[in-house]
């Protein structure tokens, strides 16, 4: 089969770094789908990208579309032909409409009936024709967070499209998009090779671009930057901590990376490390350099978009910019220390937290109440409770400091630093920092009890307030990061093995809003919707941790008001499923449940137990229920489940000897109530009816 490589390059103005990786993933997925629809066989699909281009490269693309074979069903054979085999008007009309002779029709059975079919083969078109139609659809099918329009065009893209290159082997794929016609010309590096660059063949793309000072493969740029950064840090006697997020961003900001090492005044090392790292990393995209003990060195590594030529000039420019940033930070630090955090609290009255929910000061008051309440629920001692109260009052005070105003990423970090400088209890300072944790997926969790309490209270206050006024995440919109807040609550409770009631937390948080702000939902509706929202996060966390999906489903169906308890139940059930008794217990309990679940709940009256088998089951059930109750009180869920096996023998004997659906209504209801009691014995742990047989569950 004849093949050639296919290249499509979309040249643009500077695309934001954060857009690039998602766009390339879309490009690869969409290309694979459209090529399949066009019946074009191919090898691997690669995507490349820089700030000025998105490129698709398809290896070994077939020169011709695969032929399309279509079968059209006609009339039944007994209708198509007379008893003597002559074609009827029905089949003649069908053959004529399909453009095939009657003798070209084939016969096939569809079930018990034999039909005639017209089999038509449509030869594929040359690949360049199909690609000319595919390319505009591919480009317009890419989606971006904030697409732009330019000129008087109706099209939208991440940034204005300035050129198009499309080659199948050596052949240009002719198509138009955004007023441009595709050709074989691309562009090199904006400064090192600014003119047009001719592509003779698709397979030469990467090398031609490299010669034009453009490394089109983001992975190649990342690897080059990683190596250069490590070498430069080692020359300075230091190292750079792995930072894949920063590495990916920097790689997507440049087309031809060259790393350089700069320095700053060692006096700035007197400032907290985060004060130095934030402007370096977040604002300048520099890599901080650390010594072997993890302390900062007065060095940084930057990456320029170009070669090593005039590197001293570039280094001096980067040092000048950072010097100004650090001078500002040092000034903010000195100024902020003149006013202790405790004296800044009143200033929070002028800071709006959320338009409908009041000021940050009011949030601080609610936070203090909820945190002290949680301290009591978690049996914190008097000194811990005092630390929680103090930390709650100071938790938001750094929001009105100069440093956090300039570097918002430092909220909590500066609160801890200033609290320590103000002579506050170190545990209070740590809780101020920890109450913002976790800040993102995979981030550290609060490690201290005051920090956990404060973080839970802050997140629950935010969630309850937002849900009560009708603010909930929708699709990709989550302006208050409510999903992250709910995940944070789940992770903190599970990590700390904290015994807490979600319902009681929500009720307390809601009570702090009642009468102070206008709420759209009442407490019951707010609690219902918020618990379901948190439950969805718990479901995902439990599943990620390993239990089968139906184990998770069965446990959450029995309730998750106590998330840590729900996780213990999930682990217990997953372990119980690997025991020899599990299959028999599941069968017995499902049989009891299936027979009784559609009937009204009935209490068991021992006076109407008339058969020895049901008397024996009732006696064993009474003893087993007490054993299960004791295990549940001690949160020993595995033993509670194991105790269910004690009912296997009497349940089996009951079904062998007793007719449940007898004419005597009182006896029938009593027996159904007995089965309902058996089926319900496991429900405090899990709803066993949601389990599939076997130990693999969803696997």
UniProtKB/TrEMBL annotation:
Its main location: cytoplasm. It comes from the Bacteria. GO terms for cellular component: cytosol. Pfam families: DALR_1, tRNA_synt_2f. InterPro entries: DALR_anticod-bd, Gly-tRNA-synth_bsu, Gly-tRNA-synth_heterodimer. The keyword ATP-binding applies. It catalyses: tRNA(Gly) + glycine + ATP = glycyl-tRNA(Gly) + AMP + diphosphate. Keywords: Aminoacyl-tRNA synthetase, ATP-binding, Cytoplasm, Ligase, Nucleotide-binding, Protein biosynthesis. PROSITE patterns: AA_TRNA_LIGASE_II_GLYAB. Residues 588-679 form the DALR anticodon binding domain. It is found in: Cytoplasm. GO terms for molecular function: arginine-tRNA ligase activity; ATP binding; glycine-tRNA ligase activity. Its EC number is 6.1.1.14. One of its GO terms (biological process) is arginyl-tRNA aminoacylation. HAMAP family: Gly_tRNA_synth_beta. Tetramer of two alpha and two beta subunits. NCBIfam families: glyS. Belongs to the class-II aminoacyl-tRNA synthetase family. This is Glycine--tRNA ligase beta subunit. It comes from Desulfotomaculum copahuensis. The gene is glyS.
């Amino acid at each position: 089969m004849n093949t050639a490589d296919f290249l499509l390059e979309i040249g643009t103005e500077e695309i934001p770094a954060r857009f690039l990786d998602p766009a390339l993933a879309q490009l690869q997925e969409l290309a694979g789908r459209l090529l399949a629809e066009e019946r074009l066989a191919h090898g691997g699909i690669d995507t490349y990208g820089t700030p000025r281009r998105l490129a698709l490269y398809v290896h070994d693309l077939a020169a011709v579309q695969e032929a399309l074979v279509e079968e059209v069903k006609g009339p039944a054979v007994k209708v198509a032909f007379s008893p003597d085999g002559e074609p009827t008007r029905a089949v003649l009309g069908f053959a004529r409409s399909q453009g095939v002779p009657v003798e070209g029709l084939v016969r096939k059975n569809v079930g018990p009936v034999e039909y005639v079919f017209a089999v038509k083969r449509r030869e594929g078109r040359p690949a360049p024709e199909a690609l000319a139609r595919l390319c505009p659809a591919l480009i317009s099918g890419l989606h971006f967070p904030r697409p732009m329009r330019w000129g008087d065009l109706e099209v939208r893209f991440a940034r204005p499209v300035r050129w198009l290159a499309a080659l199948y082997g050596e052949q240009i794929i002719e198509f138009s998009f955004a007023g441009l016609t595709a050709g074989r010309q691309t562009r090199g590096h904006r400064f090192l090779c600014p003119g047009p660059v001719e592509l003779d063949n698709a397979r030469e793309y990467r090398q031609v671009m490299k010669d034009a000072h453009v490394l089109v493969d983001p992975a190649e740029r990342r690897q080059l930057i990683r190596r250069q950064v490590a070498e430069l840090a080692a020359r300075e006697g230091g190292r750079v901590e792995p930072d894949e997020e920063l590495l990916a961003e920097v790689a997507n900001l440049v087309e031809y990376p060259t790393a350089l090492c700069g320095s700053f005044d060692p006096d700035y090392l007197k400032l907290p490390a985060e004060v130095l790292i934030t402007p370096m990393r977040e604002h300048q995209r520099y890599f901080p350099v650390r010594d072997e003990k993890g302390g900062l060195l007065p060095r940084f590594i930057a990456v320029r978009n170009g070669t090593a030529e005039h590197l001293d000039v570039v280094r001096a420019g980067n040092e000048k910019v950072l010097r100004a940033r650090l001078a500002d930070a040092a000034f903010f630090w000195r100024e902020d220390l003149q006013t202790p955090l405790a004296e800044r609290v009143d200033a929070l009255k002028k800071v709006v937290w959320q338009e409908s929910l009041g000021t940050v000061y009011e949030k601080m008051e609610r936070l203090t109440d909820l945190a002290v309440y949680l301290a009591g629920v978690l049996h914190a001692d008097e000194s811990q409770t005092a630390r929680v109260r103090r930390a709650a009052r100071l938790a938001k005070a750094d929001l009105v400091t100069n440093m956090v105003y300039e570097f918002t990423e430092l909220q909590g970090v500066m609160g801890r630093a200033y609290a320590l400088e103000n002579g506050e209890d170190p545990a209070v300072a740590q809780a101020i920092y920890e109450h913002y944790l976790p800040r993102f997926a995979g981030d550290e969790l609060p490690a201290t009890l005051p920090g956990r309490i404060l973080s839970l209270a802050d997140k629950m206050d935010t969630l309850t307030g937002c849900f009560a006024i009708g603010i909930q995440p929708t699709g990709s919109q989550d302006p208050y990061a409510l999903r992250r807040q709910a995940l944070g609550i789940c992770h903190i409770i599970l990590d700390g093995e904290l015994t807490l009631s979600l319902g009681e937390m929500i009720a307390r948080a809601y009570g702090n809003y009642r009468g102070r702000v206008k709420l759209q939902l009442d407490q019951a509706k707010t609690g219902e919707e918020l618990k379901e929202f948190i439950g969805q996060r718990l479901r995902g966390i439990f599943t990620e941790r390993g239990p089968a999906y139906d184990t998770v489903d069965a446990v959450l169906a029995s309730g998750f008001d106590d998330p840590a308890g729900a996780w213990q139940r999930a682990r217990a059930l997953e372990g119980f499923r690997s025991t020899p008794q599990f299959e028999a217990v599941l069968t017995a309990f499902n049989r009891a449940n299936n027979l009784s679940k559609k009937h009204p709940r009935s209490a068991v009256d021992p006076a109407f137990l008339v058969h020895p088998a049901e008397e024996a089951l009732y006696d064993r059930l009474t003893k087993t229920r007490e054993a299960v109750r004791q295990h549940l009180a001690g949160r020993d869920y595995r033993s509670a489940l194991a105790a269910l096996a004690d009912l296997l023998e009497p349940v089996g004997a009951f079904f062998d000897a007793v007719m449940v659906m007898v004419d005597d209504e009182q006896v029938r209801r009593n027996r159904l109530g007995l089965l309902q009691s058996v089926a319900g014995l496991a429900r405090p742990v899990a709803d066993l009816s949601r389990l599939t047989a076997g130990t693999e569950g969803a696997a």
